[in-house]
Amino acid sequence: MERVAVAFSGGVDSSFLVKTAHDVLGENCIALTALSPAFPEQAQAKAFCDRYGIRQVTFSAGVLTLDQFVNNPPDRCYHCKKFLFQQMKEIAAGVGFSVLVEGSNVDDLSDYRPGLQALTELGIQSPLREWGMTKEDIRTLSREMGLPTWNQPSAACLASRIPYGEQITGEKLERIAAGEGLLHRLELRRCRLRVHGGVARIEVEPKDFSILLSQRESLCKSLHQLGFAYVTLDLDGIRTGSMNEVLPRKEEEPLGTA
Fold first, then answer.
1. Domains in the chain, ordered, with CATH?
2. Phi and psi, residue 257, nearest 5°
3. Which residues pair with 58 in a beta bridge?
4. Separation of alpha carbons 255 and 131, rounded Å
5. What residues pair up with 110 in beta bridges, in sequence order?
6. For 29, which of 20, 36, 102, 199 is 20 to 30 Å away at the CA?
7. Is the dihedral of CA 201, 203, 206, 208 positive or negative?
8. What pLDDT was estimated at residue 45?
9. Choice between 242 and 177, residue whose per-residue pLDDT is larger
10. What percentage of the chain exceeds 90 in pLDDT?
């Protein structure tokens, strides 16, 4: 590929990909990071690039100007990915990088991921998927490389905390980020704060229920101050893509498969 721009969120997969690409290509690799209230790992992305001397190019993504994102249909991720990666291709080409890659892995094919279709349509290459790498493979290799991200929990776009059909706003995303910040300070490894109107529905591992209950009063007080009228604990525990459980089965079929 010779000169490669890596779509870099700061997550486990894209961190492994950009570090590997930089090890091979040096100055012929850049990290390209979209900035938005919807994306939770922007600070980690900058810290990672600073640590390893990787050139990072950032841009304001502007997803809140996109009606297909703000209106939050079930295929929101398709429209968002297409919007983002079209911008990324133009920005990468503008600084001399004609190849753009991203970090999805083969495990992503087993979930409802309409964004994968947008990547295919735009001709974005996904080396980790092409190499047949799973999330566990990436974590194992990241650990061997000494990357600080090897055991970092997955952090999906904050829009995934809002039910389909409910409008996405900057204010809601900021409340979600603040609420999850409260959970992170309890040192919960995996957690989500889903928002249903005035209800905050907290998802954590069942083994961590006791942590939440031990901090119940202070946590509820803080969440009420953020504007949530009700605070609930989801007894099913944390589930990736739990907002997809209400979709008709035909919409929930994984996209991006052969």
1. 4-144 (3.40.50.620), 158-245 (3.30.70)
2. -80, 165
3. 33
4. 19
5. none
6. 36
7. negative
8. 95
9. 177
10. 82
